[in-house]
Amino acid sequence: xxxxxxxxxxxxxxxxxxxxxxxxxxxxxxxxxxxxxxxxxxxxxxxxxxxxxxxxxxxxxxxxxxxxxxxxxxxxxxxxxxxxxxxxxxxxxxxxxxxxxxxxxxxxxxxxxxxxxxxxxxxxxxxxxxxxxxxxxxxxxxxxxxxxxxxxxxxxxxxxxxxxxxxxxxxxxxxxxxxxxxxxxxxxxx
Length: 190
What we know:
Layout lengths: L1 H33 L4 H34 L8 H9 L1 E5 L7 H8 L5 E8 L5 E9 L3 H6 L6 E2 L2 E2 L1 E4 L27
Antiparallel strand pairs: 1-3, 1-6, 2-3, 4-5
Helix pairs in contact: 1-2
């Protein structure tokens, strides 16, 4: 998600620069009509810079399209519920992960269980590890074997290993109940 946002911001900056160049070109055209000297060289320099920025914008657009295609899948649709559940059936949650641990080290720790497809260590917005990870295996049988590694020692800490659960949107949200007395929350604890 952050990658797409960064690409979109980059594209917006490029387009803004392009607009500034177009307005500058209009100014130069007006000066040329008046008979300004040295305007042709400046005009050509701006024109080449504009073409360069248009190519850059096109590259950014292609990169953004590729990222969106990777995120959505080949058909241009998000993973459907069945595919997400199947993926979760092959994954485990690992808690109490040392903050200095790397995905490679976790991969090495769990490779005896089965083929590891992906190791994801979750981080906060400052890119500091949160202390837990998700590991995706190639086979669903590996999940049951991996559960035997619960309480195994990794970097001096006992790991908590559980089968990954599938999040169901809206599950356990209830109705209101945010404030005192069970009604909706009104803010600032009043």
